[in-house]
Amino acid sequence: ATSRPLAAPRIMDLQALEARLGYSFTNPRLLELALTHTSFAYEHKSTVTGEASEDYEALEFLGDSILSFLISDYLFKADPSQTEGELSKIRSFLVSTTQLASLSRELDLGAFLRLGHGEEKTGGRHKKALLADLFESIIAAIFLDGGLEPTRRFVLSRFRSRLENIREEQLDFQDRKSLLQEKLHARGLSEPDYRIIDELGPDHEKEFVVAVYIQNKLLARARGGSKKE
Predict the structure, then answer these.
(1) What strands, in cross-sheet order, belong to the sheet with 207-214?
(2) Is the backbone of residue 215 left (phi > 0), alpha (psi -120 to 50) or beta?
(3) Neighbours of 184 (CB within 10 A)
C-alpha cells in the first residue's frame, strides 16, 4: 500500500499556534511556510515543473540574524558597561541550539511542523537542531508579516525568564573549555587534550564520544549529537 501524503496544517491548527505565539498573522501563508521542513517540500514537488515546494530554510537564515540583533540590542541597553567579550558570551549562550530548542519545546512547535515521511520516522519532530531552526523561522515569519516591533515583543517575551536570570547572575554561560584550561593552568598542569574516541549510529543521526585527557590521563568522557555538544 502506498503511504498517504502528510496533510498541511489545518486553519484551526494555525489559529491555535497563533494563540500560543501571541501574534495573529495578516498573511497566514508566512506561518505555514515557517513550519515547512525541507523533507516535506521535497516530497510535495510540483506535478508541472517537478520542483520542490518552498521550505523554511531561507526564513531560518533571516530569523537567525534578527534574533542575534534583538538579543544584542537588549543586552547592550541593559548594561552597556559590559565588555564586547562578555556580551558575546551571553548572547552565544542565549541563542545556542540548546536554548532555542528549549524555547521551541515550551511552545510545542514540533507538533505543528510539516515533515516528510522519512524525517518523521527518524524522530525529526523532536530533534534539537530542527526545533532550534523552527524557532528562528517563526521569528522571521513574524518580522516579515508585522515588522520589527511585534518581533521584538515576541522574542523578549519568550526570553524573559532567561534574561532575568542573567541579570541575577544565575546563568552559567562561561565557555567550558576556556574555564577548564584556566583551572589547569592555575594548578600548573598542561593544556587539555580532546580526543574523539568513537562515532556511533548512521550518518544522519551520528553520535560522537569525546574524551578529555590531562597529561595522557583520562579526566572525563561524554557523548553528544555533535562534537561541540
Answers:
(1) 193-200, 207-214, 217-224
(2) left
(3) 16
Please, what is the Cα angle at 22 between 19 and 26, to 5 degrees?
Answer: 85
Rounded Cα distance, 127 and 98, in Å: 11
Question: Per residue in 73-116, pLDDT tens?
Answer: 999 999 899 889 889 889 998 999 989 999 999 999 999 999 88
Which member of 32, 119, 133, 136 is catalytic? 136
* Three-class secondary structure of residue 106 per DSSP: helix
pTM of the predicted structure, to 2 decimals:
0.70
Amino acid at 58: A
| Catalytic (active site) residue 191 | no
> Which among 32, 55, 60, 64 is annotated as catalytic?
64
Distance in angstroms between the alpha carbons of the first and the last residue of the chain:
41
Return all residues near 90 (Cβ < 8 A) that are at least 6 apart. 75, 82, 166, 171, 173
* Whether residue 64 lies in the annotated active site: yes
Taking Cα atoms as reference points, which of 145, 164, 135, 20 lies closest to residue 68? 135
Q: Which three cell numbers stand for residue 209?
A: 564520544
